[in-house]
Amino acid sequence: MNSYFNNPFFWAFISMFALVGACSVVGSRKIGSHPAIGWIIVSTISMGRIILVLPFIEQPRFFLNAFNAIIGAPIFIIGFILGLAPCFLIKPLNIAEKDMAFVTTSVYKYTRNPIYLGEILWCLGWSILHGSVIGVALVPIWWAGFLFLTIIEEESLEHALGTNYLDYKKKIKGRIIPGLPI
C-alpha cells in the first residue's frame, strides 16, 4: 500500500480523476449548484499535483541547482497569482447561471480561462522547483485536461449568457493561453 503513495502516477491519477469531477461540476446543475463540491475537487486536483513532484516521491529528477529556483519560482508565483486572483472576481467551479456576474475585464481581457492558465503555470513552476521530470512531462496532459474542462464550461456559459458570451468568445481568442484558440 505504501508504494502507491510513493508513486507519482498514483498522485497524477488522483488529480486527473478530480479533473473529471470538475467537468461534472461545471456541466451538471445537480452537482454544480453545490460550491463545497467544487472546492473539494479543486483541493484534490491540487493536492495530487503538489505531492507528485515532492522529493520523497521516487522518480527521475533533473538538478540544475540554483536554476531550479531561478526558473521555477517566478513561473510558480505568476501561476499561483494568475490562478487565485480571478477567483475573487467570479464564482469558480459552479454551474453557469443567467444571473451570474460576467467578467470581461482584468486578466479576462486576454484569456477566457485565466484560472486554468494559472493552474498550468504553477504546476510547471512547482515541478521545475523540485526537479521533477514526470511533473514537467505531465504539464501538457494537465493542459489537455483543462482544455476539455473549458469546452464543457463554455457550453454551459453559452447556454446561460447567450449572445454576450458568444461575442466575448469572438473577441477573446485565447481559451486558456492568450491568443491561442485551443
Detailed description of the structure:
With 182 residues, the chain is an all-alpha fold. It has one domain: Up-down Bundle (Four Helix Bundle (Hemerythrin (Met), subunit A)), CATH 1.20.120. Helix content is 65%, strand content 0%. It has helices spanning 2-5, 8-27, 29-32, 35-51, 66-84, 114-129, 133-161, 163-171. Helix 5 packs antiparallel against helix 6 and helix 6 (114-129) packs antiparallel against helix 7 (133-161). It is globular, with a radius of gyration of 17 Å. The model has no long low-confidence stretch (mean pLDDT 88).
Q: Remind me, CATH topology?
A: Four Helix Bundle (Hemerythrin (Met), subunit A)
Strand residue percentage: under 5%
> In the CATH hierarchy, what is the class?
Mainly Alpha
Mean pLDDT across the residues is 88
Second rung of CATH, namely the architecture: Up-down Bundle
Q: Strand count, sense and closure of the main sheet?
A: none
Tally of DSSP β-strands? 0
As residue ranges, the low-confidence spans are none
